[in-house]
Amino acid sequence: MIEVDGAGHPGGCDYSPYQWEGFFPLFDDFIETVMARKGQAQKLLEDN
Amino acid sequence: MEFNQITQPRKAFLENVFKHIISLRHHDVPDWPTVSRFPAEAKDGISVFGWGYCPNTYPIGSLLFLHGFTGSSRCQHLWEYVREISHRYDFAVGGCDFRHHGMSDDALSTFGMAESWMSRRFLSWRKIAGFLGLTFFSANLSGEMAAQVSAATNPKVDAAFLMALPAWPWQAIDHYIGHNLHSAICLPDELDRLASPFRKLLKGAGLGVYDTINDHYSEHQVKILDSGCLFNHDCSPAHDPLVLYLMGSDDEYGIEHTRKVWGHWYREESARLNARPSESPKQKNG
Question: Do B75 and A37 lie within an 8 Å CB cutoff?
Fold first, then answer.
């Protein structure tokens, strides 16, 4: 049977913890960048 | 058996393929306080299901998790990450089931475009709740294609975090449907006999599947599969979403691997890491 919710299936939930070790540092940077860009856009709007 | 000897109409055949590959349909949402359900109707009348979690009255952002092909918004391992993201950044978060997945109605998957319609429903939910911003967090195939299209075309989407994105919808179809048909050990007899020519056909040009899906959605989109490809979209000059592409599980989702491969393939084409779709290296179909 095709496994859709376990390790090894490309379309399922194949996210073992080791794959996520670096996730939050990267995601932290990502969110910080998003927020900074939002802040700059808001400031531009206010200035204009 | 040659593919053109299939006795079923193509649409019925394809529906059977989807039904078999996406055989488990999950029906859970997280049991956290304040989780709400928002069943909605996509623009082609398909009933789609989503859920949202908003622990604070005034979150500073929102994030929608989009699942991959054969998955669903019920993925308990990912729920923990989504919840952590919510608490860590004060975000409202949510998930949704694409068509023919989870609790949503059956309809042919389009690997991007029709799936992106769901994100608009989430935006409506977000508007009601007064949220600011939207960051997509998606994984594998349909979710990534949908998030990518939404980020490019919807000015309300500020960012997308994409993991293991296929290059274009028909590559996704070839790889996943073809792969599943080829390798599954418990296919019904009819599909089992057809697996090899089906895969061969898909590898050729996606003919058949490509036309069947496009025909099915012709009322809503001229060629819906093409519309799922980023290169058929571009942001308006005023819309500049941040999109992060991360390579797949074989590379342990490492950004350094992504940088190396990008540099290897595109260094002679003056490719920039931070580029608009129209500035990216043109990809070749096939």
Answer: no
Residue B51 sits at φ, ψ, to 5 deg, of -140, 155
Q: What is the pLDDT along chain B (286 residues), one digit of tens a residue?
A: 344 444 456 677 778 777 877 777 777 788 898 888 887 888 888 898 888 888 887 788 888 888 877 778 877 667 888 888 899 988 888 888 889 888 899 998 888 888 888 776 666 665 545 444 556 665 556 677 888 888 888 888 888 888 777 767 766 676 666 555 555 444 555 555 555 555 554 444 344 677 788 888 988 877 888 888 877 777 777 888 888 887 765 666 667 777 777 777 776 555 556 666 556 555 433 3
CB B217 within 8 Å of CB B211: no
Residue of A nearest to B20 (CA): A2
pTM of the model as a whole: 0.78
Beta strands in chain B (DSSP E): 36-37, 40-41, 47-53, 61-66, 91-97, 135-139, 159-163, 242-246
A11/B141 Cβ within 8 A: yes
Q: Determine the Cα–Cα distance for residues B81 and B208; give it in Å rounded to an integer.
A: 39
ipTM passes above 0.85: no
Question: Nearest by CB to A2, which of B21, B159, B242?
Answer: B21
Report which secondary-structure segment, H or E, holds B260: helix B255-266
State how far Cα B54 lies from the chain centre: 23
Pick the closest to residue B125 from B102, B95, B154, B89 (CA basis).
Answer: B95
Query: CB pairs below 8 Å between A and B: how many?
Result: 84
Question: What tokens appear for B278 in the block?
Answer: 């129209």
B240 vs A27: CB contact, 8 Å cut-off?
Answer: no
Please name the residue of chain B whose CA is at the shortest distance from the CA of residue A1.
Answer: B186
